[in-house]
Amino acid sequence: ELLFPSDGDQTVSSFPLFQWIWDGFRSRISIFEKLPNQSSLAEAATGDTLFTRDLTQTVFQYPSAGVRALQPGRTYVWTVDGYIAAAGGVEQKVKSPLRSFTVAAGQAATSSLLDELERALDPKYKSIFDQIRAEGLTPFGAAQVNGTAVTGPDLQQLLDFVRNNPGAVLTVGIE
Predict the structure, then answer these.
(1) CA distance 115 to 169
(2) How many CB atoms lie within 10 A of CB 19?
(3) Which of the listed residues 42, 47, 80, 113 has the most CB atoms within 10 Å of its CB?
(4) Where are the beta strands (DSSP E) in the chain?
(5) What is the rounded distance in angstroms from the CA atom of residue 22 to the CA atom of residue 84?
(6) Is the model more confident about 57 or about 85?
(7) Percent helix, strand and coil across the chain, each to the nearest 5
(8) Is 92 helix (H, G, I), strand (E, B) or coil?
(9) Would you tell me the crossing angle of helices 126-134 and 113-120 to the nearest 10 degrees?
């Protein structure tokens, strides 16, 4: 099940956070650009793959370097193939539905999970986010909240909680 970006979302950053549910060991995310002359998501997904990566987790931040950046105003199609072991050591592929999103115009390239969190938190933490950007820091590795590892759906749930209860966060720090 594909969670984020949601189908048809037009406010996605150039470096989106992808989330899905899959209880198998391995999956592969694939991203395609939907060209203006393509009338369906399926048609876009038969074109050249813009990006693909095998993963063992169900959350993935589109890289900010080493790959072609997703362009503001353009629409992209994404899908995840889940792999399950079958008899004889053969893997079987389970395909997700196709979903589309459009990268927001304007300053979308700087938007990310970090931006989402900053918007959700009290403005008194703005200086911390300014420091993160000034030092060129980017998120990587496993996410932790209060020293405990969290999954993609956990992060989304936490972000939703912070949006609805911004005063519940007592401190924010950089590690």
Answers:
(1) 16
(2) 20
(3) 80
(4) 2-4, 9-12, 17-20, 26-34, 51-55, 59-61, 75-85, 91-95, 99-103, 144-145, 148-149
(5) 10
(6) 57
(7) 25, 30, 45
(8) strand
(9) 160
pTM: 0.61
**For residues 101 and 8, what is the distance between their CA atoms, to the nearest angstrom?**
5
pLDDT at 10 over 60: yes
What's the token pair of residue 23?
């209880």
Distance from the first to the final alpha carbon of the chain: 32
**Structural contact between residues 115 and 106, judged by C-beta atoms closer than 8 angstroms:** no
Long-range contacts of 45-48 (CB under 8 A, 24+ apart): 45/77, 45/79, 45/98
Are the CB atoms for 80 and 96 separated by under 8 Å? yes
What's the rounded Cα separation, in Å, for the pair 76 and 98? 10
Length of the chain (residues): 175
Closest CA to 173 of 98, 103, 117: 117
Q: Say which residue the tokens 């700087």 belong to.
A: 110
Which tokens belong to 42?
Answer: 């399926």
Would you state the structure tokens that stand for residue 152, as one six-digit string?
């993609």
Q: Please classify residue 86 by burial: count the beta carbons closer than 10 Å to its beta carbon, then call 0-12 exposed, 13-18 middle and 19+ buried.
A: exposed
| Structural contact between residues 6 and 104, judged by C-beta atoms closer than 8 angstroms | no
Rg from Cα positions in the chain: 17
